[in-house]
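Morning, I've got a small favour to ask if you have a moment. I'm working through a protein record and want to make sense of it properly. The fold is given in discrete form, as structure tokens running alongside the sequence. Can you walk me through what the tokens say about the fold? Thanks so much in advance, here it is:
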Amino acid sequence: MQQATINTAPPLPDSAPSPATGLTEAEARRRLSIYGPNTVETAVQESWARVLLRQFKSMIVAVLGGAAVFSFAFQDFAEGYAILAVILINALIGFWLEWNAQSSMIALRHMGATSARVLRDGQVRAIPADDITMGDVLLVEAGEVVAADAQLFDSQQLQVNESALTGESMPVSKQLDPTDPAAHLSDQTNHLFKGTAVVNGTGRAFVTGVGGKTQLGTIAQLVQEAQHTATPLEDKLNKLARQLVFITFGLATLFVVGGLLEGKSAYVLFKTAIVLAVAAIPEGMSIVATLALAYGMLRLAERKVLVKRLAAVETLGGTDVIFTDKTGTLTQNQMAVHTIWLPEGRVEVKPEATEIEPALLSSDTFQKLLRVAALCNNATYSHTNPDMALGDPLEVALLTLAHTSRFDIPGAQATANRLAEQPFNSDTRLMATVHEHPDGQVWVAVKGAAEEVLRSCTYLEMPPNGPQPLSAEQRAQYLLHAEELAGSGLRTLAFAYRLLPDEHQSDWTNELVWLGIVAFLDPPRPEVIPALASCQQAGIRVIMVTGDHPATALTVAHQVGLTTDKEAIAITGAELPSLFSDPDGEGGRLAHTAVFARVSPAQKLDLISLYQQHGHIVAMTGDGVNDAPALKKADIGVAMGLRGTQVASEAAALVLRDDSFASIVAAVEQGRIIFTNIRRFVLYLVSCNLSEILVVTAAGLLGAGLGLLPLQILFLNLLTDVFPALALGVGKGSSRVMQHPPRDPQAPIMRPGDWRLAVAYAAMMTVVLLGSYFIARQYYGVSEEVGNNLLFYGLAGAQLLHVFNMAGIGTPLRHNDVLRNRYVWLALALCTGLLLLTYFLPLLRNLLGIQPLNAALLILILAPAVLVLILGQLLGWLLHRGKNAGKLPSQPAREH
């Protein structure tokens, strides 16, 4: 057992406790009152009332609210209540989505141990982890979770799994030698950290940090500060709504001012302004966007992707940079044999290999190495269920290698009873076990650090002649081999053996026979390589950000194809401060690096912020506690659900239930399809709303009355807009969507070309409808009320058939994918049925001001609708010709 004096403990504001007795209960209570409980503070959750009130803070609500007030002032109570109902429906949808968001801080609090063992008044006591305080003597052993940050003063074979905090695949062997407090957590081997798991040995330590002052507490604070802002889609939809409001406000102002100057009735003018306000607001846009995203969420659920925030689906579709953790994300988070270097030569073992090469299996040296690996081993291994293996990851990997090589592990262990063991420690840096040999001799099996094992070797196994003297040149050569493997980021163990006449030997580890070196690596997940290739084809840059060693990170990056540059160098966390101060320095090294290693949680946040500031949409994947702040800060956080911590899952927007990086590609593809669909139905909604604005404005300027009533426009916006738009929003999309680079993240949903197209569609519908209106008034002598009905039904029919113009410029009607969308036909059937109800149901007839119509007027209702479809297809054909001639831009709705 290693021992250290009390002087190794960190300085405390009070007198240091005795390592033999710990704190007194009275002193512990006093310190607890000073430093507070050992808990991670959680963010205060907003009340439901505050979340609900926030839904009403938007320009759209302000405009609709103003329209409702004017309606009540003019005693149009039905219209006023209808507008309020629309406001309430949209607010309830937004409230439901926000209220269901889960707090990542709750998971961080649960990360701590529920109880812990401390030394109080010279007695070992189990106390709630929340009651641990500064200076307590904390006792830990295998299987426990460390309850607070602490500095070791006593340990025996202590190993701690810190992967959730640091990203390191291997457990850390703890030592008592002082380390630099500013060093990376992985290098602070004399410290324990709250929330990490003890996998081997025992230890005692002085508590140096509790609650928010622990490393876990620091990460909790980062998560709390990394508040998630509105997604790019939400921002773009809000911006589009503001544009429509400004357009309408300008038209309404000109209309009212011009009318007042001409001496028209103020009542009629303000009534028209209300109609314009209602017409401008795409009431169904947020509903349709939500439902389209929800449909995409269901599709992703079938691919084992859990979506926690609906808008995150589209955001991932626009992602052009993915920051990915290494351990457990690109790799399997378990060690496996990578290279075997025998005296006969070097052999690399492929990660996916299920059988070992026959030439290696026939090697007598390899068989002896497997025997040493099986005997000098304290791990347990299940041949029926290898996933149930327990013990040191390297020892588990050795048993897996032996099992794959069809070595008889139970037989070897049964015929070689263990007589003694020399455990591994930091001084000898090797482990030796002594066993009975079938011929009556004693077999000594040794494994450990290459330089230590070589120092104890006198012979070299050289089949078929057996052990031969090991020369100084050969010793130096094998030491270089070990250094070469370690320099590639691999963990190495050297193997040797010895036969003795009996176990009564003063030193078992002398005159050993050298067998070779085995190197280990956390192997990449099989699906990662094709998934990364798909990302590269789709123009998405993938960057590894890990807390692991730079050499290890680069080795994995080369294996998975993240970088093909053999001369690539990883940037470490120590280099980042200077690079952040001058991002364009050193030839833009920061922007061109694919691997970042030894990176802290705070530095992950800085990297994400840097790329976001340069206009990128950033996704972050991870599974550890150390990834949680970055997962929340990123535009889209993607957590691994199987191997990942609860903290990471709570902080992320998407959770991969199969931990497959390939599922990210599926999510990106679905996100791109959804954005294409959103742009398609937004173009449809805007062109329909603009047609309503133009119809009302033109009717007023031409002396045709109001043209449309507010309730009629509300009915159109909540019926004919919503259902056809929703049908467009759930289209299956193109199979070639991943063959294009990401869209410009700064581009709005409606680009200039879209606005021109929307205006063209709206003007087309307006001209056709007003033409039908004046024909009815001039040639059929219908009243203004009946003319209003013709405009209402004619516009409804035109908007319904206008949905078929959304397939894309130049798409022939017979190849129109909207025609093959069954939801479009269901939407048309539903809308047609509801329109019929407005005519035959007395309540709706009275609310909408519907008059009896004769069969002759049916032509004036249907003709404009059909004409809009024909003219829309003609416009698409003309634009398609212009596009091919290089004179006109392509239709954005066709792009992903």
User: Anything to note?
Assistant: Residues 524 and 559 are 7 Å apart (CA to CA). The first strand starts at residue 2 and ends at 3. Confidence is low (pLDDT under 50) at residues 1-13, 101-113, 887-896.
